[in-house]
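PROTEIN DESIGN WORKSHEET
SECTION A - STRUCTURE
LENGTH: 189
TOKENS:
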């Protein structure tokens, strides 16, 4: 019997917080030491390109990275990619270049995740090392995870790629508790 979890939000919420990291390459003009740029970067600050055009706004800062919102995409960049100018922080990419890089990184990550969701692929708990089961079946929008003691139908959006392969946003203990109380799937798909 395959159980269908009714707590997918528990799995998906931590994964939704994970952004696609895009690291800027190139030089910001004029370049300044990373420590100086870091000290001047604050949430809400406008980031400019080398011509003075706006690239986006700083959404958050967590050294050694910051998150920038271009209005179209959100990307995580290294603070060391920033320089300074009289207007404020400067990035060596235009808004269009950053949007293109963010969209390519997101597409690459989605393709890598799609290929990783395959029969016999292990799925880890949130620690990235504890295997909670292996994928037994794959459908268009979901897969069946065989834990050894039960089979659980999960949406593909409930997993992400990590260093050791696929993982979910729950500890092994929380997953075991969640699957213990999972209701059987309805007869219709």
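SECTION B - SEQUENCE
RESIDUE ASSIGNMENT:
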């Amino acid at each position: 019997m395959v159980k269908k979890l009714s707590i997918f939000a528990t799995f998906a919420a931590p994964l939704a917080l994970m952004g696609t990291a895009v690291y800027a390459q190139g030089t910001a003009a004029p370049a300044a030491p990373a420590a100086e740029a870091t000290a001047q970067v604050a949430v809400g600050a406008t980031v400019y390109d080398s011509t003075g055009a706006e690239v986006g706004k700083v959404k958050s800062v967590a050294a050694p990275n910051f998150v920038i919102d271009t209005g179209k995409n959100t990307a995580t960049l290294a603070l060391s990619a920033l320089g300074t100018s009289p207007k404020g922080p400067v990035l060596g990419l235009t808004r269009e270049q950053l949007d293109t890089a963010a969209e390519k990184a997101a597409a690459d990550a989605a393709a890598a995740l799609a290929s990783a969701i395959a029969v016999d692929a292990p799925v880890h708990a949130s620690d990235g090392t504890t295997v909670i089961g292996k994928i037994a079946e794959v459908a268009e929008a979901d897969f069946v995870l065989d834990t050894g003691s039960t089979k659980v139908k999960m949406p593909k959006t409930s997993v992400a790629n990590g260093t050791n392969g696929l993982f979910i946003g729950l500890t092994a203990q929380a997953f075991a508790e969640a699957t213990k109380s999972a209701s059987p799937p309805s007869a219709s798909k």
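SECTION C - NOTES
Residues 2-17+114-180 form a domain with the Photosynthetic Reaction Center; Chain H, domain 2 fold (CATH 3.90.50.10).
The chain has two domains: 2-17+114-180, 34-92.
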